[in-house]
Fold:
Amino acid sequence: MNINEFWVRLCAVDDIPPLGSRLVERTAGNIAVFRTADDKVFALLDRCPHKAGPLSQGIVHGETVTCPLHSWQIDLQSGEAKAPDVGCARRFPVKIESGDVFLALD
Ligand code: FES
Structure:
């Protein structure tokens, strides 16, 4: 972890719809926090590496989100587009503690 990062409590896990996301609005670029069917959470910049589509409005399946604009599939763990597409969405560290979601910001 970067020492310039600090953890902020975002919400309860249950405040994020399963297979959905919650948007964190920032001037430096919004962050989409996703929840999978098995209650894992992942955070990516809300900006598709293709043409900046809002990943927060995509469809979550497994540990992947499909971009709502042109259906690129983005791996939630790595932020990488799945082949044959190439690109990467910035990831943010996120963790769950006692049912609450914490996001690391810098
Ligand atoms: S902007 Fe996401 S697939 Fe085109």
